[in-house]
Amino acid sequence: MTAFARLTNRAMNLTAAIAALGALVMMAHICAEVVLRTFFDAPIPATVEIVSRYYMVILAFLPIAWLERRRGMVSVEVIEFLLSPRVIRGWDVAVALVSALIYAGLAYTTWLLALKNYASGTFVMALEVAVPVWQTYFLPPLGFGLAVLVTLARAMTILLGGEAEDVHEALER
To answer: Residue 18 in contact with residue 143, Cβ under 8 Å?
Structure first.
């Protein structure tokens, strides 16, 4: 489990760092666009397309696994106080496994879409310039695939006797 947790942790940290870097580069790009457009009447071509097709995709999909690890996704615990600890553990495992299945389905379907867009060389037109965007279609399957690993790690940790909160500690080692 520790080798699996360590590998998953490194992949999540890398994708979270890439997403953070993407946010910084996006801010610099937009600021440069505003300054150049406002003061020099020389806008950066394809800024809207690049922001919406590259930076926003990076920010939306790469940190999913990191959020799952931090248990930052939405959860509703309306009746949990009525349940025994054993039932809660079983429920946590079931939720982790269902989440893994959903993420796996999303990873699979977005992977197929990425392959289709790669094959066709998908691009968008910006001021009569073709901006290739097929590369960004590979980011959602990466984010969803890592989320599968995190939710499976959570289920395995709970099944092996740890608490759901121990997953974070296991992934930190």
So the answer is: no
Stated as kind and residue range, the H or E segment containing 30 is: helix 2-40
Output the CA torsion 17→23→28→32 (10° steps). Answer: 150
- Token pair for 50: 């690049």
CA separation, residue 56 to residues 49, 86, 159 (Å): 10, 41, 36
- What's the farthest any 2 CA atoms get from each other in the chain? 66
* pTM score, whole prediction: 0.84
pLDDT digits (tens, 9 = 90+) for 85-98: 888 888 889 999 99
CA distance 60 to 52: 11
Per the listing, tokens 């092996």 go with: 160
Selection from 153, 4, 160, 173 nearest residue 68 by Cα: 153
List the domain boundaries for the chain.
Answer: 2-70+77-172
